């Protein structure tokens, strides 16, 4: 297992295909830098929003003198501040993501770069926080269209990080105390502790949430794997623990039922959080699939 070559993550045509897509936030948390998103703050921006009565200490420059001349009362003009929407990319780099051909990591890191490019193009800050058994800061949130090459290089350097532990990783992310933004978790969402641990770790994250689920057809249909017949020994690719099983119709039915429960858990989490959820087939081109998130030309947060 090794990192994914940068040539498999980035190319000029790939970036060009993203130019018409953008994130739109109905309101972003205050405290950021000037960009293109509407802030919850009302201040001295460019777009008029409302009036409010004058209070001692207010800036005289915001007084609407036309209203004063008409009504004899002092009101301030309030304008909408435009700020950035922080984008926090959390790609899963557990060992299993780098197995098989093509590896899920390739589609995952390409998706991360695509979303980073969209945000950087609209002056938003982007950070990269890869996770496996723990989460680390690969790129602190930063802005600038010219940084996309730096992001591609950092993503290409990511290496397998061991077993998957959503609870530990998301606790670590929450402890960073980052300004509220959009968190994109890019993973197959398989955790040794089960879907319950995944749901628990993400349910109370204080950010807007977008889930990119990396799938392949054999996840739901293991019978599509030719070698999975008769008596076989299955080895967990992350822990190394093996188990001898007999592949029977009853076992396949039990697996499909368990997988359906897993899918229901992930879907219910997305619905309860008002989060986006996109299944991304790792064996198909990434951009046409991501485009489903931006069917109106933008993804609204």
Report on this model:
The protein is of the alpha/beta class. It folds into two domains: 6-25 and 85-300, von Willebrand factor, type A domain (Rossmann fold); 34-83, no CATH class. It contains nine helices and 13 strands. The strands form four sheets. The protein has a six-stranded mixed β-sheet, with helices on both faces. A three-stranded antiparallel β-sheet has the order 2-4-3, covered by helices on one side. Strand 10 (230-235) and strand 11 form a beta hairpin. The longest helix has 25 residues, at 249-273. It is elongated and about 90 Å long.
Strand content: 25-35%
CATH fold field value of the largest domain: Rossmann fold
Task: Estimate percent helicity.
Answer: 25-40%
Q: What is the subunit arrangement here?
A: single chain
Corresponding CATH architecture of the largest domain: 3-Layer(aba) Sandwich
Radius of gyration: 23 Å
Structural category is alpha/beta
> Helix-strand pattern, N to C?
HEEEHEEHEEHHEHEHEEHEHE
Largest sheet: 6 strands, mixed
CATH superfamily of the largest domain: von Willebrand factor, type A domain
CATH class of the largest domain: Alpha Beta
- From the spread of the alpha carbons, the general shape counts as elongated
Tell me the domain tally.
2
Uncertain stretches:
24-46
Q: Determine the number of helices (DSSP H or I, runs of at least 4 residues).
A: 9
DSSP strand tally: 13
């Amino acid at each position: 297992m090794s990192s994914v070559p940068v040539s498999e993550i980035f190319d000029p045509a790939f970036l060009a295909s993203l130019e018409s897509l953008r994130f739109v936030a109905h309101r972003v948390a205050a405290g950021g830098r000037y960009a293109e998103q509407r802030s919850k703050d009302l201040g001295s921006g460019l777009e008029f929003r409302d009036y409010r009565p004058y209070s001692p200490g207010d800036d005289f420059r915001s007084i609407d003198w036309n209203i004063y001349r008409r009504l004899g009362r002092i009101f301030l003009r309030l304008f909408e501040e435009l700020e950035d929407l922080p984008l926090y990319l959390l790609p899963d780099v557990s060992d299993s993501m780098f197995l098989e051909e093509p590896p899920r990591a390739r589609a995952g890191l390409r998706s991360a770069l695509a979303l980073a490019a969209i945000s950087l193009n609209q002056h938003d800050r982007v950070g990269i926080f890869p996770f496996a058994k723990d989460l680390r800061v690969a790129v602190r949130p930063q802005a600038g269209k010219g940084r996309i090459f730096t992001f591609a290089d950092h993503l290409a350097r990511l290496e397998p990080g061991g077993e998957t532990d959503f609870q530990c990783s998301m606790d670590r992310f929450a402890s960073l105390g980052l300004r509220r933004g959009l968190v994109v978790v890019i993973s197959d969402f398989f955790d040794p502790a089960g879907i319950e641990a995944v749901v628990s770790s993400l349910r109370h994250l204080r950010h807007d949430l977008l889930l990119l689920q990396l799938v392949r057809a054999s996840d739901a249909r293991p019978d599509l794997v030719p070698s999975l017949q008769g008596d076989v020994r299955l080895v967990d690719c992350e822990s190394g623990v093996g188990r001898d099983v007999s592949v029977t119709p009853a076992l396949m039915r039990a697996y499909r039922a368990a997988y359906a429960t897993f899918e229901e858990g992930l879907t219910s989490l997305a619905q309860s959080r008002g989060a986006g959820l996109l299944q991304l087939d790792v064996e198909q081109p990434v951009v046409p699939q991501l485009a489903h998130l931006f069917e109106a030309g933008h993804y609204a947060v």
